[in-house]
Amino acid sequence: MAFPIRSAAVPTLGVFVFARILDKIRLDSAGQLPAGYHVGIIEGKRTFDDRVCRFLGVAFADLRQRTLEGGSDEEVMEWCFAQGRRPDAEQIEIWNGFMQKRGWNDAAAAGLAQQKIDAGLGHRDDIQTFFALFDAEEGRTEKWWNHAC
């Protein structure tokens, strides 16, 4: 059985992380979000959910409401483009590059190291990004970079 939350490397209209956030919103609304997962904005922390909303220029609460109204991931993304901003191809490329490398030799590296330890994966030297950590925690064995844009 597939994990109920998609990999952060699954693009929606080219944008990484968005599909994962919609999965979390839908599962949370149904009371089925796995233990240990958060959805939305956490006071004082920069989460992937927060970063996606800032990138698209929409408030998380509004994205949550629109997602729960129904429609495909692409329809919700088009709504974001209409309500916030529509990044061009180069902006999406830069976004995806930044996000897929988050935790690798950057300001988030210490947080990644701690989260690996917390997940019992501190010994895994192959996990060098948050994308890789998410996939390892969720049992995905295929490497995300095999599908990256």
Explain the overall architecture.
The protein has 149 residues and is mainly α. The protein folds into two domains: 1-100, no CATH class; 103-144, no CATH class. The chain has helices spanning 18-29, 48-56, 60-68, 73-83, 89-100, 109-118, 130-137. The longest helix has 12 residues, at 18-29. The radius of gyration is 15 Å and the shape is globular. It starts with 17 loop residues before the first helix and ends in a 12-residue tail after the last helix. The model is unreliable at 145-149 (pLDDT under 50).
How would you concisely characterize the structure shown here?
By secondary structure, the chain is an all-alpha fold.
How many H/I helical runs?
A: 7
Order of helices and strands: HHHHHHH
Radius of gyration computed on alpha carbons? 15 Å
Mean pLDDT score: 92
Low-pLDDT parts are: 145-149
Which labels suit this protein?
149 residues, disordered C terminus, globular, single chain, 7 helices, 48% helix, mainly alpha
Can you lay out the helices and strands and say which pair or pack?
Blueprint: H1 18-29, H2 48-56, H3 60-68, H4 73-83, H5 89-100, H6 109-118, H7 130-137
